[in-house]
Structure formats: structure tokens, C-alpha cells
Amino acid sequence: MKKAYRLLILFGSILLFWGCEHDTPIVSLGIDDTYYLSRMQAHRFTPGFTGEAYRWSMLLTDGRDSLLSEERDYTFVRKDEGTYNLRFEIIDPHNPYTHNFQVEVLHEVVEYSAFISRVLEYKPAPGQFVNEMPLYENGDTEEIMRKKAEENISGKNDVMITLGGFGGYVTFGFDHTVMNVTGEKDFSILGNAFYSLVEVDNPGGSCEPGIVMVAFDKNRNGIPDDDEWFELAGSEYYKPETIKNYKITYSRPDTNKEPVPDETGNITDQTYIGWVDNLGTTGYIPKNRFHTQEYYPKWINSDQLNFKGTRLKDNAEDISGMGTYWVQYAYDWGYVDNHPNDSTSLVSFDIGWAVDSNGNPVHLPGVDFIRVYTAVNQVCGWIGETSTEIIRAQDLHIK
How far apart are CA 274 and CA 297, in angstroms? Predict the structure, then answer.
């Protein structure tokens, strides 16, 4: 009897083991059958299964499908309301998988703003308007200055901020994804450029071009961390005189240094803030009598500031020949603070101009982060350094 009992227990254990080994585990794909999303708000799909290859496609009304992505994760965003039928496929010889699902794109509950909703970074290079636009007050931190920049350019106040010399930048975003609409300009950025000489082919005056960078928040965490940045290639991008991967380092001025004024008295220190670039060139941002405050950002603790980017050729000319009348000529298109604000098409930008670090065009569904930096490294006598200024930015698809 005891022997039979032991055999029964052994047989039961074998059956239990066999069942545990051959039951198919229940694992969630991580993708629902239906989603309800607001327009211009991206959603990242992350499947729980893996395979050799992946395919995301949209099912069209005529029965065909349109390839969306071949990466494992996919971020969906659409400008227009409606029903979108999607398909996700895992291409694998052992565990293939297909899942059809639906996305209902709805109108937002709270209407989007057409203007900047937040400034994420404000990091100007030294310049004659730094610590004035916006105004630095004793004890202000980097975070306080960021908030001041945000208040100035968010479309409520339209108060100018400066980016200082080459490389100084501001990064901002909207309360939604700015969509890339084929054949249309997607957003505008206003500065303070103006013409003093209006020539048909060569307008000029005070044109201080800034380059635009854009990024799509692929991981949907709301900050520009691991997201790839792309330059919007303007009219000068492919020209041989444009310098890619230009780097510059500014040094905090020595308060004990003896100023070196010029003979006119307009420049009070010709060797005020020194800089060196990766081409082996050195130079200075001079101090002038019209702006007597410190030009190095007072809220920055570091004694050196490093910037990098694409450098455009100098656009200024002393047409007086005596240093009294400088003209900064406008580039054709694709730059901030490069044409007057009433030149609507020339202060508007197309996400379709985006290129990667090798200059190859890329397609972005939209952008969540926009960065503008001063693109010229030049000094125009008593006028001072060329510095891009910004007043506001606007999504052209929001009325």
C-alpha cells in the first residue's frame, strides 16, 4: 500500500512538472485595441514582445497599408482629428505576431496656445545686452533667469531677450507637438532685425542671424535629454564658407585688468572678454560706452563658457571705411533675426528643412523642442558683437 502511494505521488509530480513546462505563459503585448488621444499630442507605443524585425503600418481605406516605422518602439502623433487604423507586426521565424488596433484622435479639451509655453534653457554667450535682456538682479540663479526669459517671449509680453555672441542659445517648447505639415511653413520666430539699405538682391541693416535646431521628444519624457537635434538648413548651409562643428570658449573677464579703450572713446575696453576657437583663432568681445554693465552672464559660476554649432560667414561691412557706419546684410532665408518681422515668409520656418549631422535630410512628424543660437562670430566696431535677439515664437498651425 505504501509503495502504491509513493508511485501515485511521483506520478502526480511528473504531471505537475509536465504541465508547468508546457503551459503557454500569458504575457501582455503592451498595446491595447483602442486609444483615445488628443491631436498634436504624441503617444509612444512600446510592445512587450521581441522579434527579429518589426513593422508599424497604417491601414488605408483602399485596403493598402502605409509603412510608418520599422523600429521596435513607435511614437504616434497626428494633426487632424479622426479614426486611424494601425497594425503592428513582429517579423520572426519562431514567434511571429500581428496586432491590429485603432487610434481615435480627438480635439483637445483645453485649446492649445499658438505661442511658447515654456523655456527649457537660457544660456547666452557674453554680449553687450547680457544681464539687461532679461534683467539680472542680485542673487538671480540660472533657474530664475530661465523663468524671466520664459515670461518675456511666451507671447504674453513680447519683451526681447538676447543670446549674446556666437553659440549663445535658448531652448523652448509649446503645449503640444508642432506638426510638420508638408508644403507649409510650420512656425515663426520674431527678432528685431531691420533694413537700413534696401537693395533688391542684398538688403541690409541690423541683421543678426540665428540658426534653428529642432528635436522630437521620442521618449515622451518632456525634456530634451536623449532626443536627437537636427539643424534647419537655411540658405547658407551647403555653402563652402559655412563652418560646421565650430567650437568657441569664452573666459570670464579679469576685473583687475587695465581696460584698453580705442581712440574714439566709443569702445571702453577692446580686450574685455577673450575667446578662443577650435580653429586656433583668438579674439575679444569689446566693451562699449553704451552698455556699462557686465557682459559675462552673472548667474553663471563657471569661469569659461563653451558653445558649438554651425558658424555662418561674417555678414557685416563698414561701408563708411572709417568704422562709423556698419551694415549687417541679410542672408536669403532660414535664420532668426535675419529679416524684419513684417517679412512673414522670411521669419517662418519649415520642419522639412531638417538635416542630420551629415547634412542628410530627415523626416520628423513634428517637433517638441526648438533651439535658436547666434550663428555669426563677428564684432562691428562701436556697434559691438553680432547677437541674435528673440521676441516670440508661434505655431503657424494654431489659429
Answer: 14
pLDDT confidence band for 28 (50 / 70 / 90)? low
Measured CA to CA, the distance from residue 300 to residue 278 in angstroms comes to 23
Q: Which run of H or of E encompasses 309?
A: strand 304-311
> If DSSP codes are grouped into helix, strand and coil, which group holds residue 234?
coil
- How confident is the model over 294-300, as a mean pLDDT? 98
Residue 56 pLDDT > 50, yes or no? yes
The C-alpha cell at 78 is 497626428
| Residues in contact with 249: Cβ distance below 8 Å, sequence separation at least 6, in sequence order | 275, 276, 277, 304, 305, 306
Q: What is the mean pLDDT of residues 142-147?
A: 98
How far is it, in rounded angstroms, from Cα 60 to Cα 62? 5
Q: Is 185 exposed, middle or buried (0-12, 13-18, 19+ CB in 10 A)?
A: middle
Four-CA torsion 74, 231, 248, 289, nearest 10 degrees? -120
pLDDT score, position 186: 98
For the chain, what is the mean pLDDT?
92
CA distance 174 to 150: 11
Nearest to 161 by CA among 361, 363, 391: 391
In whole angstroms, give the CA distance from residue 66 to residue 334: 31
- Does the pTM surpass 0.70? The reply is yes
Give the containing element (helix H, strand E) for 19. helix 2-22
